[in-house]
Design brief:
Layout: H1 14-33, H2 39-46, H3 52-64, E1 68-69, E2 78-79, H4 81-93, H5 97-111, H6 121-138, E3 141-146, E4 151-155, H7 157-163, H8 166-169, H9 172-183, H10 185-191, E5 199-201, E6 214-221, E7 226-233, H11 238-249
Antiparallel strand pairs: 1-2, 3-4, 3-7, 5-6, 6-7
Helix pairs in contact: 1-3, 2-3, 5-11
C-alpha cells in the first residue's frame, strides 16, 4: 500500500529510499489508471517533498536500470516486467497490513462455503462457487484444476475483459490471441509444475497467454488435490491477489 512520505535531509540512504518509493508510487498510479505516469502527478498526489525535476531525474535512473520505459517521446513512464517483479519481491519481504486484511477477508468468504474433500457433484458445485468468489474479488479470469477428477472449472472472463484497456479491446489480433489461449488453458494447466505457493508469472513469462500484457498467479491445495489460478492484465493488484491465493493455500477443504 502506498502512503504519503517526506524524506528527511539527514537520511543517509534517502536517494535509494526515494527511488524505491517513487517506483512503488508510479506502479500504484499506473495500476489505478493504466496511463503513463508523469512526475508532476506523483509529486502532487503522493506529496514526495521533492521537486518534479528530482523525480524526473529518478525516472531517468529507473529507466536506465530497466524498471521504466517511455511509450512516447513526450509521455510519462510505464513500469516494465522488472518493475512488477520488484513490487512482488517487496510484497513477500515486507509485513503488510493490507495483505493480512485481504487474507482474513477472503478466508471469511471461503468459510461460508462448506467444502468437503470428496469428489461428488455437490462438492464440485461448491468449488465452482469458490472460483466465482475469487473471480469477483480479484476482478480477473480464475480457474481451478481438480486433478483427480481431471476437470477444469473457469469463471470471470467478463472481469478480465473489463480490466483490459480500451485500446487492447479494440485490438482484434489481441482479442483473438486471448480467445485461442484460453481454449488451450486446460491442456497447459494440467502440465504445469508448481514449485512454490503462490507461483507468479509476469508478462512474457506467463505460459497461458502469448501476449506480454497479462500475468498469472497459481497456488496448490492438497485436499482435494487441485490448482487454483488467477489470470488478468499485468497491471492487476498483486498484493490483493497474492493475499487471495495465500488464503486459498491455507484453506482446509
Amino acid at each position: 500500500m502506498i502512503t504519503k512520505i517526506q524524506f528527511e535531509k539527514n537520511d543517509e540512504d534517502k536517494s535509494e529510499h526515494r527511488k524505491d518509493f517513487i517506483l512503488r508510487a508510479l506502479i500504484h498510479e499506473y495500476t489505478e489508471t493504466g496511463e503513463p505516469v508523469a512526475s508532476q502527478i506523483l509529486n502532487v498526489k503522493y506529496q514526495l517533498g521533492v521537486s518534479s525535476a528530482t523525480i524526473r531525474n529518478h525516472f531517468v535512473v529507473l529507466t536506465e536500470g530497466g524498471y521504466l520505459y517511455k511509450p512516447y517521446i513526450s509521455s510519462g513512464r510505464i513500469p516494465t516486467d522488472k518493475a512488477w517483479k520488484f513490487l512482488i519481491e517487496r510484497i513477500f519481504n515486507e509485513d503488510s497490513d493490507f495483505l493480512d486484511h485481504w487474507e482474513k477477508r477472503i478466508q471469511n468468504q471461503f468459510s461460508k462455503i462448506k467444502l468437503t474433500p470428496s469428489a461428488n457433484i455437490q462438492s464440485i458445485e461448491k468449488i465452482k462457487k469458490l472460483v466465482e468468489i475469487i473471480a469477483e474479488e480479484s476482478h480477473s479470469f480464475c480457474f481451478c484444476y481438480l486433478s483427480q477428477e481431471n476437470e477444469v472449472i473457469k469463471q470471470g472472463l467478463k472481469y478480465m475483459l473489463t480490466e483490459m484497456m480500451e485500446e487492447e479491446l479494440l485490438n482484434l489480433e489481441l482479442i483473438q490471441e486471448v480467445a485461442e489461449s484460453l481454449e488451450k488453458l486446460d491442456q497447459k494447466i494440467k502440465k504445469i509444475k508448481i514449485s512454490q505457493n503462490p507461483l507468479i508469472f509476469i508478462g512474457k513469462d506467463n505460459p497461458f497467454l502469448r501476449s506480454d500484457q497479462f500475468s498469472s498467479l497459481l497456488t496448490t491445495v492438497s485436499h482435494p488435490k487441485s490448482v487454483f489460478g488467477i489470470l488478468g492484465p499485468k497491471r492487476m493488484s498483486y498484493e490483493k491477489n497474492i493475499a487471495i491465493l495465500k488464503a486459498l493455500s491455507n484453506l482446509t477443504f
